[in-house]
Amino acid sequence: MPDRRRVLQTLAGLFLSAFGLGSYAYAWEPAHQGVTRYRVKPAGWPEGQSLRLAAISDLHVGGPHVPVSRVREIVDLTNLLRPDLILLLGDFIASRSKRRDDPPEAAWAAELARLQAPHGRFAVLGNHDWWHDDRAQRDYRGPTEVRLALEAAGIPVLENDALRLETRAGPLWVAGLGDQLAFLRPRRGQRRGTHDLAGTLAKIDDDAPVILMAHEPDIFARVPARVSLTLSGHTHGGQVRILGWSPIVPSHYGNRYAYGHVVERGRNLIVSGGVGTSKLPLRLGVPPEIVLVELG
């Protein structure tokens, strides 16, 4: 039988280990920004051509670890990467209820307006951009305050829309899907989301490659092979990820679309781990990231 001193030493060691891990997950990992790089050559991509995409997701400005000054740092780092195109994947505001001391939308939108890319900056909205807009929830329609702030800062928001760009790699379509979880309490006979995948893709009228922005990755199960690459956020990689597995993922598909580069039936999805946090202010094994995709 172990003596009392050894038992106490063991318990103390376990407590300190748990305390240290918790402190790391709260104070260290969420505050350190990284860049995650992918190289993808989708089917039908023009031979010999390349394009660099930067994607930023789930800022949750005003939440733990993400004051407006952090947005400024992320913008500076993104610009240093010299992307050809910058895509903002939704959930710009904190996941908690609004507070009087929250930074105004115009403050963080002005920082995002400093993003520089020769082929432009485009955004989609996330569920929290809808959920915390009382008027949008009451009237069951947009535009949300977040959309208005982004557009006032010169950043187009694509909701079930597609734009054809002339890029250094040739013509390219950038499409943005409406949010799939926009309404907390849908009215009877109404859908929960504003998304219209078929209507969005119907606006594409030639065979140029298509990049689709969709805040939640679940739609990828229905995305046709016509789309070269789908970019999503929302899951935060589960916020806790151990050996490539996340115990809790806000997706109907669990870990299937939790994080990273997913290839199914020749189709490509990249899910960003995002920047901020939701629910618990912790990250473990999935640090905040800017995603950089080299296409071609």
Can you give a write-up of this model?
The protein is globular and about 50 Å long. It has helices at 4-28, 68-80, 105-112, 127-131, 134-139, 145-152, 197-201, and strands spanning 34-40, 51-56, 85-88, 121-123, 161-167, 170-176, 210-213, 229-232, 260-264, 267-271, 289-295. The strands form 2 sheets. The chain has a 6-stranded mixed β-sheet. The chain has a 5-stranded mixed β-sheet with strand order 1-11-2-3-4, with no helix packed on it. It is of the alpha/beta class.
Ends: how far apart?
64 Å
* Broad structural category: alpha/beta
Major sheet details: 6 strands, mixed
Strand order of the largest sheet: 5-6-7-8-10-9
Percent helix range: 10-25%
Which geometry do the CA atoms define? globular
Number of helices: 7
Q: N-to-C SSE series?
A: HEEHEHEHHHEEHEEEEE
Number of strands: 11
Our Rg estimate from Cα atoms comes to 20 Å
Average per-residue pLDDT, rounded, comes to 92
Low-confidence stretches: 7-19
